[in-house]
């Protein structure tokens, strides 16, 4: 069973990495660009067959390792 | 108009970063884990009103800066 996880910085947390990408895109002529925020993306495969158990496990992985809940949010989707 | 972009390594490209995450998760007791692949995630806001033009622009950004098409694939979604 395969899941995608996106981890993004919370709205009010500064994102210097995204800012650099934003500036670079503007410098190469992308004028209608308003903002860029960068995050992390994971594709996770687990061997559980029960969809609920599998999703619970991926959720655990996010809480324990992948996301820092103080400054980040995460989303899990089945793919 | 807001878009999400995910950039992932192509299937046959080695992903050492994902491997480290995978090993770490297994070390903290996630036994049913089969594999982890890591990618990049961007949230991009553009000021164009025309959805087609806006998506075209985001697609351009991916080709020019965000993704290395030799080893990476990308997906653009409106959010």
Verbal overview:
- The structure is a homodimer of 79-residue chains.
- In chain A, 35% of the residues lie in helices and 37% in strands.
- With 79 residues, the first copy, chain A, is an alpha+beta fold.
- Chain A has one domain (2-78): 2-Layer Sandwich (Mth169, Chain: A).
- In chain A, strands 2-1-3 form a 3-stranded antiparallel sheet.
- The termini of chain A are close together.
- Chain A binds chain B through residues 4, 6-8, 18, 21, 24-25, 28, 30, 32-48, 54, 57, 60-61, 64-66, and chain B through 4, 6-8, 18, 21, 24-25, 28, 30, 32-48, 54, 57, 60-61, 64-66.
- Strand 2 (33-46) of chain A pairs antiparallel with strand 2 (33-46) of chain B.
Rg estimate of chain A, integer Å:
16 Å
Looking at how many chains there are and whether they match, the oligomeric state comes to homodimer
- The tally of helices of chain A reads 2
Distance between the termini of chain A: 8 Å
Number of strands of chain A: 3
CATH C-level category of chain A? Alpha Beta
Proportion of residues in extended strands of chain A: 35-45%
Strand order of the largest sheet of chain A: 2-1-3
